[in-house]
Amino acid sequence: MRPPLSSPSPSPPPSLWRDTDFRKLWAGQTASQLGEHTTLVVLPLFAVLTLDAGAGQLGVLRAVGQAPILLLSLLAGAWVDRWRARTVMVLTDAARAVALGAAAAAGLLGLLGLPALFVVAFTVGALSVLFDVAYQASLVRMVRRDQLVRGNSALEGSRSAAQIGGPALGGALVSLLSAPVAAAAGALFFAVSFVSLRRIRRPESAPEGVAPVPERPEHAAPVRGRIREGLRFVAGNAWLRAVCLASAAFQLSFAATMTVYLLFLPRELHLTGATVGLALAATGPGALLGSVLAARLPGRLGHGVVLVSAAVLGNGALLCVPALYGSSTATILALLAVNFVFGTFSQLVNVTVMSVRQAVTPDGMQGRAAATITFVGMGFTPLGSLLGGLLAQEWGLRTGLLVTAAGMMLSPLLMAVSPLAGLGRVLPDSRKEPRHAE
Known about the structure:
- It is a single chain.
- This protein has helices at residues 20-50, 55-80, 85-108, 114-140, 148-176, 179-198, 223-236, 238-267, 273-281, 283-294, 297-301, 303-317, 329-360, 366-378, 381-395, 397-407, 410-416.
- The protein is 73% helix and 0% strand.
- Mean pLDDT is 80; it is low at 1-10, 206-220 and 434-438.
- It has 438 residues and is mostly helical.
- It is globular and about 55 Å long.
């Protein structure tokens, strides 16, 4: 049985941009995301240009930096729920600034080797996992429930901008100056975020009706027990269970699709590396538009309608790619359009899902719910990549891409047959919803 929806809000939410503390949160999160996405490019270039790393060593470096997503997501959720979210954000910003600053200084002095760079990459990656879980929990403790969609739209919009501008800035800094100086610039971004978040004056409190979050609870459950609580909560909540299943289906199919896609463009369409990069970059502006749409469409059309229709449009756009032939201008324009549409509607789904997840989750479970969904979704990406490579090898690039892109339609199908599809214009309330589906 679908959980009942909450009643409409009696008055429109006030503008978040008039809230000084929200502006500080937004500025800090924006600077932190710029630092994170700049670093994702700077550290590999540091290894290649300064330390003469080979292809195998570069692959290890990237894997080491990504490993914390799988290794630490569940632990991060348990830890974030035991601390004030902004405390976690401030501490992780400070630690990342120190780690990158130390790497920059050692690089300038010629004292940084590959083993030390591996340690820096893992450290920054682990701290980024903590920060990303914490900032999602922080928003729900700062704004009203009816402001969540607009708040997430602003935060995810800046994250999308950082995904576009961060790598470009990192590459430019390495080219114009040097890899150690570019690493120092990443440290500066994290320092700016640290200062901005420290200036937030509003006490961090739970939503109305929920007990305040302690700084260090005296009788906290063991970490393993708290992780199990998070897993049970997500599995027992009809909405979150649907989000988990849809996310897992999307990540599995998307990883498979991208593996074939990155082979299809240069080998089947004979596109140059620069053209491939241009086509992929079109998802960035689309994501910015998706963030803007996410601030308004769910409240007008209904969250369920937006989730299902946006997933169909975004994922379905990739089904057009196997129909393309050659490297003509028309083909390139079609790829730009496909990636722009995919970026727009994928971001619309991301922001809406995050708002729903925050709304239906009690404050004390925010970190663990976010971490559990991240863990389940991202856990399928290695399998998806292997599957995509196998399909491309056995069936060919065009057929493999068609099959994997078609597999992405499983995600909106799962949402369409779940309680998510019945969500209305007003977000549900965790205080009024049963934790377990009947």
